[in-house]
Design goal:
This protein has helices at residues 7-18, 34-50, 68-78, 92-102, 114-118, 131-136, 171-179, 181-184, 202-214, 228-238, 247-256, 278-288, 360-366, 405-412, 450-461; strands spanning 23-27, 30-33, 58-62, 82-85, 106-109, 123-124, 151-156, 166-170, 192-195, 218-220, 242-245, 268-271, 292-298, 303-307, 320-321, 325-330, 343-349, 373-382, 385-391, 396-398, 401-403, 418-428, 431-440, 471-473. The protein is of the alpha/beta class and 493 residues long. It has 15 helices and 24 strands. The relative contact order is 0.09. Strands 2-1-10-9-11-12-13-14-15 form a 9-stranded mixed β-sheet. The chain binds 2-methylbenzoic acid. This is Benzoate-CoA ligase family protein.
């Protein structure tokens, strides 16, 4: 077995040589330079080793986004352990289940956090102090030299149903987004990256950790979950050049933006996590003058595998295959579909996970022996441009035809009084039919025949079978901790 670079070393060392005093992270008034980061990582590695953490051990990390998060992740990787960044907002039983499933040796968390209370493993409180304090503890420790298949990271997907699945990644996988997607979006060390998605979500981790450090850029971290107005303030304060967010957040930002809102400095607005509705793309362009560049990735890929190219983003399209990936669209028998037909997306590329943690059957279903990975997403493609049709398990079968909830939602979202919506299936006389849940603009009232108006509107644009049989006004839609709409939570409502 050949050895590969330790990911922590590969992410830190070139920066120490090139620009030790450059800020790696900005958070509130804290500035963490690359030298500060490296010192703190060595110290954290030593602290973990002294606590009995061995190469291969899983280390749970439940921390609000801030300098401590990359320090802890890199510190664990440095000694060959496998960090598991977890969202701060899971339920106690979810923490208990995940930490037990992973067989985590220790948990890094505030001792009062529900994760610490729920876990029955040693809790290491995280108090790295300010950058000066970190520097005085600098302690050199050789990085662990991993073998090619040694794990560097264990991520748990926040699936909308069932138990979360552990997705292990190797040291070299951590570097892969920078070798492929980073070039696609033209990243350089001069970029200042701000991801509204957190480090516990693969999308945020790719942006604020793998890409930021591999390019020697600077990333902004925010411990809170800022609302749209606070996000605008952060953008004005730190002037990021690249902004990553999910579609829901762009919709929320549109509610607080004004035509002359200052977004100076941002050269690229990027969206992933869910399909970006064409209506959001257009409203954003109209309001700000900027395009939103959309792509799709997954925790299993630890990368983005289809993406628009900056400056050429197309409303309603996810884009073209990203560098480093091959893709196929297949039917349920794994036969390639005819051009233009919807199919299940398979991807193949270096750096994708080769199995789930502790789930051999699910792994066999998803990760195929020849390297192809089932994404669970449906797409159509023409001229190399991919259009997302939704998650395969969200698709409805109405009158013998597949109905994409997203296609119906995209029409509803063009109605001026619809802020957000989700379409799911319901049963009418035993048959599956679409139903819609709608968050309306302020002032629209239940009982005002809004449903009738929406029905008329959808019928103008789509065939009868695709028209929801009922429209329910709701105050908010159920979402996962990463901001994805949980359509299946609305099935029985
Ligand atoms: O979950 C996603 O959609 C995603 C998107 C981009 C990168 C990573 C992930 C997990």
């Amino acid at each position: 077995m050949t050895s590969v670079s330790n990911a922590a070393w590969a992410l830190l060392f070139p920066n120490l040589e090139r620009h030790p005093d450059k800020p790696a992270y900005l958070c509130g008034d804290d500035v963490l330079t690359y030298a500060d980061l490296a010192s703190a990582v060595a110290r954290t590695g030593a602290m973990l080793a002294a606590s009995g953490v061995q190469p291969g051990d899983r280390v749970g990390c439940v921390l609000p986004d801030g300098p401590a998060t990359p320090i802890m992740l890199l510190g664990a990787m440095w000694i060959g352990a496998c960090p598991m960044p977890l969202s701060s907002s899971l339920r106690p039983e979810e923490y208990a289940w995940i930490l037990a499933d992973a067989g985590a040796r220790v948990l890094i968390a505030d001792t009062g956090h529900p994760a610490a209370v729920a876990s029955n493993i040693p809790v290491l409180p995280c108090s790295p102090g300010g950058p000066e304090g970190l520097r005085t503890y600098c302690d050199f420790l050789e990085p662990y030299a991993p073998e090619a298949n040694d794990l560097a990271l264990l991520l748990y997907t926040s699936g909308s149903t069932g138990r979360p699945k552990g997705v292990p990644h190797r040291h070299r996988d951590i570097m892969r987004p920078a070798e492929t997607f980073g070039g696609l979006i033209g990243l350089t060390e001069n970029d200042v990256i701000f991801s509204a998605s957190k480090l516990s979500f693969a999308y945020g981790l790719i942006a604020s950790f793998s890409l930021a450090l591999a390019y020697g850029a600077t990333a902004i971290l925010s411990p809170e979950k800022p609302g749209p107005a606070e996000l605008l303030q952060l953008i004005r304060r730190y002037r990021p050049s690249v902004f990553f967010a999910v579609p829901t957040l762009y919709n929320l930002l549109l509610r607080v933006l004004e035509p002359d809102s200052y977004l100076g400095g941002v050269r690229l607005f990027y969206s992933a996590g869910e399909a970006l509705p064409a209506a959001t793309f257009k409203a954003w362009k109209l309001m700000t003058g900027y395009e939103i560049c959309e792509g799709i990735g997954s925790t299993e890929a630890y990368n983005l595998f289809i993406s628009n190219r900056p400056g050429e983003a197309m409303p309603g399209a996810t884009g073209k295959v990203a560098p480093g990936f091959e893709v196929r669209l297949v039917d349920e028998a794994d036969t390639d579909v005819a051009a233009g037909q919807p199919g299940l997306l398979l991807i193949r590329g270096e750096g994708t996970a080769t199995a789930y943690w502790n789930l051999p059957e699910k792994s066999q279903e998803t990760m195929l022996p020849d390297g192809w990975l089932r994404t669970g997403d449906m797409f159509t493609a023409s001229d190399g441009v991919f259009i997302h049709q939704g998650r395969a398990d969200d698709m409805l079968k109405v009158g013998g035809w597949f109905v994409s909830p997203q296609e119906v939602e995209n029409v509803l979202l063009t109605h001026p009084d619809v802020v957000e919506c989700a379409v799911s299936g319901c049963r009418v006389e035993g048959l599956e039919r679409p139903q819609a849940f709608v968050v309306a603009r302020n002032g629209v009232e239940a009982g005002s025949n809004f449903g009738g108006e929406l029905r008329r509107f959808v019928r103008e644009h789509l065939p009868e079978d695709m028209c929801p049989v009922r429209f329910q006004l709701v105050a908010a839609l159920p979402k996962t901790s990463t901001g994805k709409i949980m359509r299946r939570a609305l099935v029985q409502a």
